[in-house]
Amino acid sequence: MRVLDGLKQTILISAGLMSFVSVASSAQTGRDDDAETIKKLNREITEALLLHNDSDPLERLALAQYLVVAPGGRIETKEQAVSGADSLDVAGMEISNEQVIFQDDAAVIVGKLDIDGTMQPMGKLPPMKFMATFVKTDGEWRALSRSMTPCAPVAVERGVC
Description:
Layout: H1 2-52, H2 56-61, E1 62-69, E2 75-77, H3 78-83, E3 88-103, E4 106-119, E5 123-124, E6 128-137, E7 140-150, H4 153-157
Parallel strand pairs: 1-7
Antiparallel strand pairs: 1-2, 3-4, 4-5, 4-6, 6-7
């Protein structure tokens, strides 16, 4: 009888652990999907603005209170970011080293942005690091803010940016 009780207990514990692992795995899979969505949205906004001077994705995906810290250090509203697209002359760009972190319904994506082009009045754009914040609103991820920091020349020379 004790052997059967021990066996039942082992089966129940194993079943409980398997359920926990399954739920934890599902939660991670959901976050992995969200991370891919954030990367996709970030690329959609960035490529449209930089390569095509197209502000539609930004207008559609950014919240009304969206703010940008632009490469020159200027803080811009959504409207200013949209109207600033015509100050860009970009032949190509590459986003790399993306990382996404989450807290509840907020996500932050960071990465590197290499741009082959110019922005008035700054001139040629150096490599940059970016950080963008997205929040889930009514089940959809929306852009809340972005910051773009030009890499210091010494950081570029040393290969850390």
